[in-house]
Write a structure and sequence with these properties.
By secondary structure, the protein is mainly α. The protein has a domain of 294 residues: Glycosyltransferase (Alpha/alpha barrel), CATH 1.50.10. The protein contains 18 helices and eight strands. It has a two-stranded antiparallel sheet. Strands 3-6 form a two-stranded antiparallel ribbon. A two-stranded antiparallel ribbon has the order 4-5. β4 and β5 form a beta hairpin. The radius of gyration is 20 Å and the shape is globular. Bound molecules: alpha-D-glucopyranose. Alpha-D-glucopyranose binds next to α2. The site of alpha-D-glucopyranose has 7 residues, from α2.
């Protein structure tokens, strides 16, 4: 059975290949997405290393002149998706794209390919190194608001955890302008409404895009003056890990100047970590920057301090306690939202379901920090959901039923690179 699934996973990646880059799934997401492509490269690397590097190279073709790597690259217009290039009107690079970014897992994926590869992989990584470093600089400057100790986000889509209840705090402060242009959603044409974000949430997503367009996608203004500003433990921990991994690559590639600069970013990340510690819940939580208010639930991003090698021993113990509490309630760890918090829905996108890429990095961090049993459970639960339901976008955390997109690229890729029992990690 797993062998058949390995073959099926390779077939999905080939079928979603659009000529050097991969779409997450046909119809629902018909473009190249940022962190999807990074995870997809790990899957390709198990059978076609050339194709793995190509995925990353094509992603960086979309990089903006200010260093940002956008969350979507629109190589052609596609009526199946809203909001497409004509809505974003974002032209900060050579290709049309979205005007926001996504969690920066790219450096960590490059280090993985280099660590498991040879001279050819080092040469490919060296050619991309400066671009990735520019992107990290962008996070530490354009997305770090004046006076704030951590990187932030201006749009829930930038966190990759689109409609997680974490973002309600930021949305509650927003008004939808009366002159917001009418639009037609396409996601609810391709997927079940009960698994997708609500209409009001969509209005607010579009309101932020309108602001970005109105300031000509000046990213510093979008951060400091925009309608939405939150700090996300997901982006924070993923960037800290990526800074560490890029620092490691700087050593391998003999780039001492870059290593010093990255040491500075790492020190900033380590010292900023406490900003995300919610003393009431005793967990790392999303935070609304202008009010200082914390989100009051444990999300899958709250489980990432191990991956970043961050947080004090007490903070890590408390994080493990939350995972124990939640693990006793759901059959499939790690839910995207806390089953004990308001807003939990086991089948609705980022309000409960288990996501393959989150389980991968959470489990990797737990294993590295010696929490072997829990790491195994997180990996085994994802494998069991895939074996039960197939290569879905995400899975109902209570039943393991597949949700939303089918034949999904990162699910296939991470099965091959990590979750398949044929894989010895
Ligand atoms: C959704 C997910 C996001 C992902 C994208 C493409 O928007 O929330 O994380 O990158 O789909 O798969």
């Amino acid at each position: 059975m797993p062998l058949d699934l390995d073959q099926k996973a390779r077939d999905i990646l080939k079928q979603n290949d659009r000529g050097g880059y991969t779409v997450p799934t046909a119809r629902l997401y018909p473009y190249q997405w940022n962190w999807d492509s990074a995870f997809v490269a790990l899957g390709f690397a198990t059978f076609d290393r050339e194709r793995a590097w190509q995925e990353l190279e094509l992603l960086l073709e979309g990089q903006w002149r200010d260093g940002m790597v956008p969350h979507i690259i629109f190589r052609r217009d596609d009526p199946d998706y809203f909001p497409g290039p004509s809505v974003w009107q974002a032209h900060g690079g050579d290709l049309p794209s979205g005007g926001i970014s996504q969690p920066p897992v790219l450096a960590s994926v490059m280090l993985d390919l280099v660590a498991s590869g040879n001279d050819a992989d080092r040469t490919r990584a060296a050619a991309l190194f400066d671009k990735v470093l520019d992107w990290h600089r962008w996070w530490h400057s354009a997305r770090t608001p004046d006076g704030c100790p951590v990187v932030c986000t201006v749009h829930p889509w930038e966190t990759g955890r689109d409609n997680c209840p974490d973002w309600d705090l930021g949305f509650d402060r927003m008004e939808v302008p009366a002159d917001l242009e009418p639009y037609t959603r396409m996601d609810t044409v391709h997927a079940d409404v009960s698994e997708r974000p609500s209409k009001l949430q969509y209005d607010k997503y579009v309101t932020i895009i309108k602001f970005g367009r109105d300031v000509g996608w000046d990213q510093t203004r979008l951060t400091n003056e925009g309608p939405f500003l939150m700090a996300d433990p997901g982006i924070h921990f993923i960037l800290l890990r990526a800074d560490r991994d890029l620092r490691h690559l700087a050593d391998i590639l003999d780039r001492p100047g870059a290593a010093d600069e990255l040491d500075g970013f790492i020190a900033k990340g380590v010292s900023g970590t406490d900003y995300l510690w919610n003393p009431d819940l005793k967990a790392f939580c999303a935070r609304e920057v202008r009010s200082g208010a914390f989100s009051q639930g444990f999300s899958s991003a709250s489980a990432l301090p191990f991956y970043a090698d961050a947080g004090s021993p007490d903070q890590r113990d408390s994080t493990l306690g939350h995972l124990d509490r939640i693990g006793a309630k759901v059959d499939f760890l790690v839910p995207s939202w806390d089953p004990d918090a308001p807003g939990f829905e086991p089948q609705r996108y980022w309000c409960g379901p288990v996501w393959p890429q989150m389980n991968t990095i959470i489990s990797k961090g737990l294993a590295e920090q010696g929490h072997t049993d829990l790491a195994k459970r997180v990996r085994g639960d994802l494998a069991a959901a895939i074996e039960k339901s197939g290569f879905f976008e995400c899975f109902n955390t209570v039943t393991g039923a597949g949700c939303i997109g089918t034949d999904f690229s990162w699910t296939a890729a991470l099965w091959l690179a990590w979750a398949s029992p044929n894989r010895k990690t």
